[in-house]
Design a protein that fits this description.
Subcellular location: Mitochondrion; Nucleus
Keywords: Calcium, Glycolysis, Isopeptide bond, Magnesium, Metal-binding, Mitochondrion, Nucleus, Oxidoreductase, Thiamine pyrophosphate, Transit peptide, Ubl conjugation
Mean pLDDT: 91
Distance between the termini: 81 Å
Number of helices: 30
Oligomer: single chain
Number of domains: 4
CATH architecture of the largest domain: 3-Layer(aba) Sandwich
Low-confidence stretches: 1-24
Radius of gyration: 33 Å
Strand content: 5-15%
Structural class: alpha/beta
Helix content: 25-40%
Protein name: 2-oxoglutarate dehydrogenase complex component E1
GO cellular component, one term: mitochondrion
Number of strands: 30
EC number: 1.2.4.2
Largest sheet: 8 strands, mixed
Length: 922
């Protein structure tokens, strides 16, 4: 379609017409011609990339699904010009820089320069950006004549990097031809591309770069960008290499690395981290962003000038994975921005075996980046100098505007999906072309040899030099007998695990606080520590209620959380709480951020007024995202062990849209990648007749993934914590919630903590704790025994009902109604994993004549029963059966009918207290 000129261009053409071309018999024609030139310039800026020479294979897999692009010398008629106008001189509009120092050019030269700028090896998409300054900046970078010039030294450095990238893959293929390695063949220019971004960023003051990428090319990036020792990479191919006792480990092309080194171009120190990533290609994106944000936070880098991120993507994944969109939408949010990320897409022009035509609905795989106005630079990866130029511009853009930018490396995949795959099955024509394709190193070396930039002897010596490096590393790699995961840590915590050179004590510490500190924090939680701040009347009542609780020496769930957070902040622990609606709390219980009712955007966070020298408290409502945001918080928690990082689901049920982060990173992270992590997941849970999507945090899923053996009775409780892959608790009291949060920081190691949090208990009159349960000497109770009348004559007790969480209060109410206080003991298991075998044994021994019953409100095939039963049986050495009281099996987590919910509730309560029921069953 015809692209209209700007108003400025029209006025310019009219005002300067006579001065430019002298007497014109037809002033109207003169104005129209200048408007046409303005439109032509804009057409190249908008659509020039459509005819750019981007595809090294020249097979044109991109389908624009549009009318032909009206660009070129023979298309001027579309704009109202004709071939006789080609040699006429026109004044250039202010929206182009193709003239350099010249303000007028012949139309033929205008078109030639526009084609040089927009239709060669680089295609630029930027005209959708609605910021004039940013558009003008990009125009200057690509339109000015002669911008893409390189010195002799730069060309030689580029050739050296291409040699190392190419010969690394050839060496691996030569030594291990039958091994999968997901090599970089077909996109060898990725290595100089990344090194160029790093060089330019280092020049601009960046000291730390966190990177994430899929598996293709990972070994090459580790070797030639991060500078991982080659022998440590090569020994990974040894089938006789033994794994150390540090977990399962992972395949070599999933592993990460942390390295601090000198950047030889800038002669400055730079720290590079490549984050470990599973086969879930884009899952690492938000994790990288979270770690980047944390590093910026801890070094006071509020503008992203010292710490930045680079994300690598595959074309099919970039277009297809929703977490890419979620991550982009975090890019400008105040509590999540990393002040610009450089995205590099390795565009193979094919997925595993899937053509782009059936893999995406957009022309380019990069179109998702347009949602945040990120410029997109497409470049032919077989033109290394164009790649280098684009990457320099991308790094400059990020340093100038602190916004995301995308480099789309249009390349190909010389082998199949991996080195064992046969691509001709599914892409016969593409791979016939690829077999004829010269390698990019051969192309570029021939170019430089023809220019005289290098001699053949220098080129061959460079190849021989790198081959020698690889051979020597290969010889050293044979000495490696054991794989130590410590060599592959992407987030080391120096000094955390030792004190004065000695390992930290594993002793369980008291997590209680002096009463005066509880009172002080309680009154802060009940106040508005800012003058002339108007709060909502309903909130005034809530704060008064908190103050009354402090006076009565009790706390509810929200105040217990306040006590834990406030005390940790006072002790210097940074706390970050993130998730949908966490500032107020989904259930209107938290109110950590107060809003002035008269002044827009004026807020108060009382938690930041605990103590003059306290650590900062970050509480932030997230975007409506689970996958992206949980990944972000996980990355944040990886950066430092000295912070309490929590993510709260709006309802526990919703964690399933972040299941990839839970399954691939949080649950097995230490086993696969040697990374401890102390992230806390708060998952509201409870069967209260609210329907299948607002009831269950699916505790059975977390329990099923615990690494504990149900058939083995452990020796030490603290050792259980150290050996487990994560901790799962369902606290029934605010004091226990308070203690488990403080324990999370005070213990000598870090494990993920899954907290099944309540909904109705937030305001339950019985779900309150005395300050006595939070004083010095108190600690988290893994199990809470029955302290009622059953203790007076334990041998007369006929049943122990074990339970966890909210159902305890329903059980005690039912027991009181039935008058079974002295015959039925109710025992709460507060820590489900690791299972408190030792404390359960105390209870079963205390009541030797009692039946053992597990009671839960969840359905039998869900909840805790399948996890708890074998552990209870192990505890009693299988001498007593374990009976079940709860809802029957079901496909959905809960009924959507309130009446049916109440019938189910009463039915399983009847079962729990019918002392003859299980005898009859047996």
């Amino acid at each position: 379609p015809f692209l209209p000129p700007s108003l400025g261009g029209a006025a310019l053409g009219l005002a300067n017409a006579q001065a430019m071309v002298g007497a014109q018999p037809n002033m109207e024609k003169l104005v129209e011609d200048h408007l046409a030139v303005q439109s032509l310039v804009r057409a190249y800026q908008v659509r020039g990339h459509h005819i750019a020479k981007l595809d090294p294979l020249d097979i044109g897999v991109i389908d624009f699904d549009e009318s032909p692009v009206m660009l070129g010398l023979k298309k001027v008629g579309f704009y109202g010009l004709d071939e006789s106008d080609l040699d006429k001189v026109f004044r250039l509009p202010t929206t182009t820089f193709i003239g350099g120092s010249e303000s007028v050019l012949p139309l033929r030269e205008i078109i030639s320069r526009l084609e040089m700028a927009y239709c060669q090896s680089i295609g630029v998409e930027f005209m959708f950006i609605n910021d004039l300054e940013q558009c003008q900046w990009i125009r200057q970078k690509f339109e000015r004549p002669g911008v893409m010039q390189f010195t002799l030294e730069e060309k030689r450095t580029l050739l050296t990097r291409m040699v190392r990238s190419t010969k690394f893959e050839e060496f691996l293929q030569r030594k291990w031809s039958s091994e999968k390695r997901f090599g970089l063949e077909g996109c060898e220019s990725l290595i100089p591309a990344l090194k160029t971004i790093i060089d330019k960023s280092s020049m601009n003051g960046v000291e730390s770069i966190i990177m994430g990428m899929p598996h293709r090319g990972r070994l090459n990036v580790l070797a030639n960008v991060i500078h991982k020792e080659l022998d440590q990479i090569f020994c990974q191919f040894d089938s006789n290499l033994e794994a150390a006792d540090e977990g399962s480990g992972d395949v070599k092309y999933h592993l990460g690395m942390w390295h601090r080194r000198i950047n030889r171009v800038t002669d400055r120190n730079i720290t590079l981290s490549l984050m470990a990533n599973p086969s879930h290609l884009e899952a690492v994106d938000p994790v990288v962003q979270g770690k980047t944000k944390a590093e910026q936070f801890y070094c006071g880098d509020t503008e992203g000038k010292r710490v930045m991120s680079i994300l690598l993507h595959g074309d099919a994944a970039f277009a297809g994975q929703g977490v890419v969109y979620e991550t982009f939408h975090l890019s400008d949010l105040p509590s999540y921005t990393t002040h610009g990320t450089v995205h590099v897409v390795v565009n193979n022009q094919v997925g595993f075996t899937t053509d782009p035509r059936v893999a995406r609905s957009s022309s380019y795989p990069t179109d998702v980046a347009k949602v945040v106005n990120a410029p997109i630079f497409h470049v032919n990866a077989d033109d290394p100098e164009a790649v280098m130029y684009v990457c320099n511009v991308a790094a400059e853009w990020r340093a100038t505007f602190h916004k995301d930018v995308v480099v789309d490396l249009v390349c190909y995949r010389r082998n199949g999906h991996n080195e064992m795959d046969e691509p001709l099955f599914t892409q016969p024509l593409m791979y016939k072309q690829i077999k004829k394709q010269k390698g990019v190193l051969q192309k570029y070396s021939e170019k430089l040899l023809a220019e005289g930039a290098v001699s053949r002897q220098d080129y061959e010596e460079e190849i021989a030099k790198y081959d020698k490096i690889c051979e020597e590393a290969h010889a050293r790699s044979k000495d490696e007998k054991i794989l130590h995961i410590k060599h592959w840590l992407d987030s080391p915590w120096p000094g955390f695990f030792n004190v004065d050179g000695q390992p930290k004590s594993m002793t369980s510490l008291s997590t209680g606080l002096p009463e005066e500190e509880l009172v002080h924090i309680g009154y802060i939680a009940s106040s508005v520590p800012v003058e002339d701040f108007t709060i909502h009347r309903g909130l005034s009542r809530i704060l008064k209620g908190r103050a009354a609780m402090v006076g009565q020496r009790v706390c509810d769930w929200a105040l217990g959380e306040y006590m834990a957070f406030g005390s940790l902040l006072k002790e210097g622990t940074h706390i970050r709480l993130s998730g949908q609606d966490v500032e107020r709390g989904t259930f209107s219980h938290r109110h950590h951020v107060l809003h002035d009712q008269k002044i827009d955007r004026r807020i108060c966070i009382p938690m930041n007024h605990i103590s003059p020298n306290q650590a900062p408290y970050t509480v932030c409502n997230s975007s409506l995202s689970e996958y992206g945001v949980l990944g972000f918080e996980l990355g944040f928690a990886l950066a430092s062990p000295n912070a309490l990082v929590l993510w709260e689901a709006q309802f526990g049920d919703f964690h399933n849209t972040a299941q990839c982060i839970i399954d691939q990173f949080i649950c097995p992270g230490q086993a696969k990648w040697g990374r401890q992590n102390g992230i806390v997941l708060l998952l509201p849970h409870g069967m209260e007749g609210m329907g299948p999507e607002h009831s269950s945090a699916r505790p059975e899923r977390f329990l099923q993934m615990c690494n504990e053996d149900p058939d083995t009775y452990p020796e030490f409780a603290v050792r259980q914590l150290y050996d487990c892959n994560w901790i799962i608790v369902n606290c029934s009291t605010p004091a226990n919630y308070f203690h488990v949060l403080r324990r999370q920081i005070l213990q000598a190691f870090r494990k993920p903590l899954i907290v099944i949090t309540p909904k109705s208990l937030l305001r339950h009159p019985e779900a309150k704790s005395s300050f006595d349960d939070m004083l010095p000497g108190t600690h988290f109770q893994r199990l809470i025994p029955d302290s009622g009348p059953v203790c007076e004559n334990p041998e007369a007790v006929k049943r122990i009902v074990f339970c966890t969480g909210k159902v305890y209060y329903e059980l005690t109410r039912e027991r009181n109604n039935r008058g079974n206080d002295d015959t039925v003991a109710i025992v709460r298991i507060e820590q489900l994993s690791p299972f408190p075998f030792d404390q359960v044994k105390v209870e079963t021994d205390r009541y030797p004549n009692a039946d053992l019953v597990w009671c839960q409100e969840e359905h039998k095939n869900q909840g805790y029963y399948d996890y708890v039963k074998p552990r209870l049986r192990t505890t009693v050495d299988r001498t007593r059966p374990v009976w079940y009281a709860g809802r029957g099996p079901a496909a959905a987590p809960a009924t959507g009918n309130k009446a049916a919910h109440l019938v189910e509730l009463q039915r399983f309560l009847d079962t729990a207290f019918n002392l003859d029921a299980f005898t009859e069953q047996s």
